[in-house]
Design brief:
Length: 169
């Protein structure tokens, strides 16, 4: 019984020493890194540190100048027009929307008139609509501006536009 009593503290001592060594090794690495960093700082002059910092600032400034000023996003806008519109009125409506997109600064603007197609459900008593797909590249806030524009009565949303949706591609 005395052997067991002696064996338990030895095993506990081994476990605690192993845990202590693991803990010491995990704490030693950050201490070594901090010691090396402090030694580098103490060994170098303050003038050298200022030169290093200024060179980093110059590199960051050069990278910012090389990057484009405004990020451009690709958008698709699908517009469903009233099927009873005459061709002239439809062309005027599409030209008005294209002018709005160009005013927003949209580039690579293309439109595809997909023609009359059957609607999945009646909208304002119409069972067909004229589908027009616009693809363009613009600033990130252009999608919200387009949705707001098409929702207003000035765009003819009450009379000519049955549905519209803008997607960021």
């Amino acid at each position: 019984m005395s052997c067991l009593a002696v064996a338990q503290p030895v095993c506990a001592a081994r476990t605690s020493s192993a845990a202590a060594s693991r803990q010491a090794s995990s704490l030693a690495a950050p201490r070594l890194v901090a010691a090396r960093h402090n030694a580098l700082l103490a060994g170098s002059s303050s003038k050298a540190l200022v030169q290093r910092r200024s060179s980093v600032v110059k590199v960051v400034a050069a990278a910012a100048a090389a990057a484009p000023a405004v990020e451009q996003c690709q958008y698709e806008t699908m517009v469903v027009l009233r099927p009873t519109m005459p061709d002239e009125e439809r062309d005027q409506e599409l030209a008005k929307f294209q002018a709005f997109l160009q005013k927003l600064g949209a580039s690579q603007l293309s439109d595809l008139v997909r023609g009359r197609q059957r609607l999945a459900y009646p909208i304002k008593r119409f069972t067909e609509g004229i589908y027009v797909l616009y693809t363009y590249t613009a600033t990130p806030n252009a999608g919200q501006a387009v949705q707001k524009y098409l929702s207003t009565p000035t765009a003819g949303a009450e009379l000519n536009i049955l549905r519209h949706m803008t997607f960021r591609v």
